[in-house]
Amino acid sequence: MMSSEFFGNWFLPGVWITVQVTLLSAALAFVIAFPIGVLRTSRLWIVRFLAGAYFEIFRSTSSLVFMFWIAFTVPPVFNISFQPMFAGVLALGITYGAYASEIVRGALAAVPPAQREAGIALNFTPLQRLRRIELPQAWPEMIPPFNNLLIELLKGTSLVSLIAVGDMTFAGDLLRLVKNESAPIYTLLLALYFVFAFILTRGMRLLERHAKKRIGQTPEKTSLFGGMRSKSAIDAVTGTGGAK
Amino acid sequence: MNWNWSHVDDFMPLFWDGVELTLKALLFGTLIAFSLGLVWAVAQRSEKKWIRWPVTVVTEFIRSTPLLVQLFFLFYVVPEWGPSMSPLTTGIVGLGLHYSTYTSEVYRAGIEGVPAGQWEAATALSLSKRRTWTAVILPQAVRRVIPALGNYVIIMLKESPQMAAIGALDMLGQAQGYSQATFTYEAISVVGVAFIVIAYPASVLLRVLERRLVR
Question: Which domains does chain A have, with CATH numbers?
Answer without folding.
Answer: 1-219 (1.10.3720.10)
